[in-house]
Design brief:
473 residues, alpha/beta, Rossmann fold, 3 domains, 15 strands, flat
């Protein structure tokens, strides 16, 4: 599923608001849903609100996709009657480029009292066709809120040591839990419990560790008993290792290129020096020294927590929402991060909300939705094109602009520094006027000219001005 249009009739700061999320005319993907979208705008313009609307849509869709039973069951939160056009909050057009049907559908979210109802409209969709149609809409949500890195991951993640017994002895409850984890489709870091969400994301890794430890325990037990079968168990273990590579190696191969910028890497040695080695992904510095979770920087958390789900989960036709992807990341990493994220989930549709000019520079103009308040205090989209929505009519191209130009043209930054900078600019201007005067009147005091010139160069350097070295001549 990919979203190609959002229309909001009246909701919070939005009124009669509509955005087209397809590639413009003249593009090789003309008319198809955008692969990635970036929301920018002042605080309060609704960037996060739009992400939340998309999240609600996907969660509701997933809920109905997995439901069973009669559509008349009130627990399904579906209503077919007793709502009018004025009750509608918003509607979202979606398409299914990777499924058997290419039909467009409209999700209409309506509100009555405190209850939210969800209805799927596809032409004259009949009630009895609902179950067969909804089965084609399976999707997955990965929601990464700005607050994600505030979670305390070192706080009692379940210890896989509790499962250290032969697979044949695992009880029915464990198998049921495995089924739930493997079929989890919504990964919302804002509402899910950290323990549960990471158990699902790292399920294969944890399962591998459990099996490896069980093998090792068997080998040790046989050796202690001087059992003649110990050699066979060891051979079985080697054969299993050969056929089953450690899942964390795949994560390390994709994460390490970025972590190396911080002189870090994923730890893949199974030494089990301490219980927490089994809790979560572990990292090391360039000297192979372990760094506990409590020692991770905010930027390291941001990267690992965001990237790992994109690597481990099946993101086919997924919706990925990332709020403030720049949080805690150095500018050079920000510049690379969007391309990196999207490369890990090529078939997903990404939605970002940002205040960073480095992040914005990663997008084509038709991928950016700039939100502004109009004179009535309602939010509108500021268009980057004139006339027809065609690739040739866009007058702002973020990828061509310097960071300062992006701040002026796209983020509406109007000031040129504070009072300290302005004072230094005045000082530089005065020195420049004195040098110009000496040049016109003739340099009668070379020492004074050199002093002024050195002061001018120093002020210019502090202000990041580029000057010719022989300008005094």
């Amino acid at each position: 599923m990919k979203i190609n249009r959002i229309k909001i009739n009246k909701y919070n700061q939005f009124e009669n608001f509509e955005i087209d999320l397809t590639y413009p005319k003249g593009h090789k993907k003309e008319g198809l849903p955008l692969d990635k979208v970036c929301f920018i705008g002042q605080n309060g313009t609704g960037k996060t609100t739009l992400l939340n609307i998309l999240k609600e849509l996907t969660i509701e869709n997933n809920y109905h996709n997995n439901m069973s039973g009669n559509v008349n069951d009130p627990a399904t939160l579906i209503t077919w009657d007793n709502f009018t056009e004025k009750d509608k909050i918003y509607e979202i057009n979606v398409s299914y480029p990777f499924t058997e049907t290419n039909d467009n559908s409209v999700y209409k979210v309506i509100e009555k009292g405190k209850n939210h109802f969800f209805s799927l409209i596809n032409g004259e969709l009949e009630r009895e066709n609902f179950d067969s149609f909804i089965n084609k809409l399976k999707t997955r949500l990965i929601n990464v809120p700005a607050e994600m890195i505030d979670f305390n991951l070192s706080n009692k993640l379940e210890n896989p040591l509790e499962y250290l017994k032969p697979i044949s002895e695992l009880n029915e409850q464990t198998f049921q839990e495995k089924g739930i984890l493997m079929h989890k489709q919504i990964f919302d870091f804002l509402i899910d419990k950290p323990v549960e969400i990471w158990k699902a994301i790292l399920f294969e890794n944890s399962e591998y560790l459990i099996k490896e430890i069980n093998f090792r325990n068997k080998i040790v037990d046989k050796l202690l008993l001087v059992d003649e079968n110990s050699d066979k168990i060891l051979e079985d273990f080697k054969e299993w290792k050969k056929k089953n590579p450690y899942p964390l190696i795949n994560i390390a191969n994709k994460l390490n290129p970025l972590l190396l910028k911080f002189n870090l890497k994923i730890k893949i040695d199974l030494d089990f020096k301490r219980p927490e080695d089994l809790y979560f992904i572990q990292i090391q510095n360039s000297n192979d020294e372990d760094i506990p979770l409590t020692g991770w920087s905010s930027g390291t958390k941001q990267l690992i927590l965001t990237v790992t789900p994109l690597i481990t989960l099946n993101t086919w036709e997924s919706i990925v929402l990332i709020d403030e992807p720049e949080r805690s990341l150095f500018p050079d990493t920000q510049y690379e991060i969007i391309k990196y994220y999207t490369s890990l989930a090529l078939d997903a549709q990404f939605f970002f909300a940002t205040h960073s000019p480095m992040i914005a520079s990663s997008f084509e103009p038709w991928e950016i939705v700039e939100l502004k308040f109009n004179d009535m205090g309602k939010v509108i989209q500021y268009p980057y094109f004139k006339g027809e929505r065609h690739v040739d009519n866009y007058f702002i191209q973020p990828q061509y602009l310097r960071w300062d130009s992006i701040l002026y043209k796209m983020f509406d930054v109007q000031f040129d520094g504070d009072s300290v900078r302005k004072a230094k600019l005045i000082e530089l201007t005065k020195i420049g006027l004195e040098l110009e005067k000496l040049k016109k009147e003739g340099d009668k005091n070379p020492e004074n000219s050199r002093r002024l010139w050195e002061a001018y160069k120093k002020a210019a350097e502090l202000l990041d001005w580029k000057i010719e070295s022989d300008a005094k001549n």
